[in-house]
Amino acid sequence: MDSVIIDSCSINGQSDQSSEQSSSLNLIIKKLGHELDEIRVRSLDNLISKIEAHLISEDDLSQHKQLFIKLFDLFNFEEFDQHEKVLNLLIQLVEKSRSATRNIFDINGLNFLNSLKKEHSDNQSIRLKIDELLDLMGNSSMESTKISSSCMSQADSFNSNDLDTHLRHLQAQMNQHYDSSSHDQPSSARSHNKFDASRNFSHTSASNNSINDQFYTKINK
């Protein structure tokens, strides 16, 4: 039998490279909330360039919940004028990754998008971008619901009590994650407060129970 030789140096090198890329990405995401508009814009362009150069995929980027918090937070800065660029990036992420839709729901970004749409009632371009984003989120949500229903129908090994206990356990884990995350949000200088990450996180558990009803009601308005 041929022996398989594992190059530990190569494995360690790949691990170090992955860790370095993750640290670099986290730094770029953090700078989206910088007090200087020039740095915020540069960080946004940097992320977009990495996607276009295939240095990172939309799905990998969508795993970072902090990214979506920072992207929505950009609308809080009065001097920031790259709104369409942010919406285009959100559309691209939602179109390519279901994780993007889930993270937007998780930070209660749906309510913010509807508020933003009303605020830009005189800007047709912004409104169309938001409508496109909401439509994509609706399609992604419907697909996820179909998958969840399929998985539930195959869960014959669970009786009703086991399933109820399992769901309560998952909800407790989610609540714990959101509570801990809400204390990690850095403060940033805002010209006005339209999107408050910590407030949205604290209300996520309650809003998740009716998120689908809210979504389909609001996108049809």
What does this protein structure show overall?
The structure is a single chain. By secondary structure, this protein is mostly helical. The protein has one domain. Helix content is 73%, strand content 0%. The chain contains 12 helices and no strands. The chain has helices at residues 8-31, 37-52, 58-62, 65-73, 83-96, 98-106, 109-119, 124-153, 160-182, 197-202, 204-208, 211-219.
Provide the fold topology.
Blueprint: H1 8-31, H2 37-52, H3 58-62, H4 65-73, H5 83-96, H6 98-106, H7 109-119, H8 124-153, H9 160-182, H10 197-202, H11 204-208, H12 211-219
Summarize the structure.
This is Rotatin isoform X2. It holds the Pfam family RTTN_N. With about 220 residues, the protein is an all-alpha fold.
> Which range best describes the helical content: under 10%, 10-25%, 25-40%, 40-55%, 55-70% or over 70%?
over 70%
Low-confidence stretches: 146-160, 177-193, 201-213, 215-220
Quaternary structure annotation: single chain
Radius of gyration over alpha carbons? Answer: 20 Å
Give the class from helix and strand content and strand pairing: mainly alpha
User: Overall pLDDT, averaged?
Assistant: 74
Number of domains: 1
Report the count of strand segments.
Answer: 0
Strand content: under 5%
Mass-distribution shape = globular
Which sequence of SSEs, written as H and E, runs from N to C? HHHHHHHHHHHH
Enumerate how many helices there are, as a single number: 12
Cα-to-Cα separation, first versus last residue: 68 Å
Largest sheet: none
GO cellular component, one term: centrosome
GO biological process, one term: ciliary basal body organization
Organism: Brachionus plicatilis (Marine rotifer)
Region (Disordered): 175-207
